[in-house]
Amino acid sequence: MTTTVDAAMSRSREISASIATHPSRHRMLTGDRPTGDLHVGHYLSSLRNRVTLQEQGVDSFVLIADYQVITDRDSVGQIKANTLSLLADYLAAGIDPDRSTIFAHSAVPALNQLMLPFLSLVTQAELQRNPTVKDELKASQRPLSGLLLTYPVHQAADILFCKADVVPVGRDQLPHVEQTRVVARRFNTRFANGAQVFPEPTALVNDQQLILGVDGQKMSKSRGNVIRLRATPDETAAIIRKARTDSEAVITYEPERRPEVANLLNIASGFMAAAPEELAATLGTGGGRALKELVTEAVNDGLREHRERRRRYAADPAQLTQILRAGNARAASVADNTLAEVRQVMAMDY
Ligand code: TRP
Question: According to the model, what pLDDT value does residue 308 have?
């Protein structure tokens, strides 16, 4: 397993170099589940990178993975509101619907149909040993549904319908990208006589520090440790006030020994043009209190314009819906072409 991860990381570095020199040769796809509001972790570790790729000239697809919401829960929840909220954050962050195709996979029938031949290419054993599926099963405290077991194959359809070769994701998504590579390879050998119908995509894993919640645990709504992008400056201050620090008056950047303090410094650093060590040095003997003030200001200043743009988008759901529909239509036409090709190579083009 480590060798698989190492290989994936080294492919990630290679493709990153190739993107820098030949951006237009690449197509990226990534996305999020519309389960709730995005937070500063999403902003610092994924939204900004997507915008950078778009600005570099990489052909970009951004997916709102609505069907994935029901992999590990019984109801869709506030899915429409969550979808529009996600879209508002994408647009506010600078994902430009004229240059990036933003879409929901439920609205792209041909994408979903690809899952059928793809399911024939994976084994039950492969699905059952997927570590991310296992973790999600445990966390869901429900019986394993057919969709939870097979959603990595659906995710392969998300990626392959547009023949994306670059998939920016966190490390937890590596097993799915590996499974997608297997699906692409087997499709090409079994159904296409070795023709490269599908590329084997590469995960673009960001090496940044993982941003945690204000208590140093994984950011999660149920833990109340999340700094939401849409929070007001006061709500932001209140959450950061509750943050866990320690009683040492001198703030230092020591991720191993002082993980909560280091995490707060990482958040401030993400919004300021300064390394966490440098920020620590400016705080003198101010302790946790000075640190929290710094982080609050960094987040509120860093997000001021994003929040303003977000508010304007969110106030106009009709416009958001129109933008999403246009993205859905564009994705659907790409998916239709891919499905037509798949039917043809599988001799099902009657
Ligand atoms: N599984 C991803 C997550 O939970 C979301 C996702 C769905 C995705 N389809 C994708 C990410 C395709 C990258 C590529 O965050």
Answer: 98
Q: What's the pLDDT at 1?
A: 59
| Residue ranges of the chain with per-residue pLDDT less than 50 | none
Q: For residue 178, report the distance from its CA to the centre of ligand 1, in Å.
A: 13
Cα–ligand 1 centroid distance for 151 (angstroms): 10
Domains of the chain: 2-210+316-345 (3.40.50.620), 231-314 (1.10.240.10)
Q: What is the 3-state secondary structure (H, E, C) of the chain?
A: CHHHHHHHHHHHHHHHHHHHHCHHHCEEEEEECCCCCCEHHHHHHHHHHHHHHHHHCCEEEEEECCHHHHHCCCCCCCHHHHHHHHHHHHHHHCCCCCCEEEEEHHHCHHHHHHHHHHHCCCCHHHHHCCHHHHHHHHHHCCCCCHHHHHHHHHHHHHHHCCCCCEEEECHHHHHHHHHHHHHHHHHHHHHCCCCCCCCCCEEEECCCCCCCCCCCCCCCHHHCCCCECCCCHHHHHHHHHCCCCCCCCCCCCCCCCCHHHHHHHHHHHHHCCCCHHHHHHHCCCCHHHHHHHHHHHHHHHHHHHHHHHHHHHHCCHHHHHHHHHHHHHHHHHHHHHHHHHHHHHCCCCC
In ligand 1, the atom with minimum distance to the C-alpha of 168 is 13
Which residue puts its alpha carbon closest to atom 2 of ligand 1?
A: 32
Ligand 1 residue neighbourhood (C-beta within 6 Å)? 29-33, 63, 65, 68, 155, 158-159, 167, 169, 173
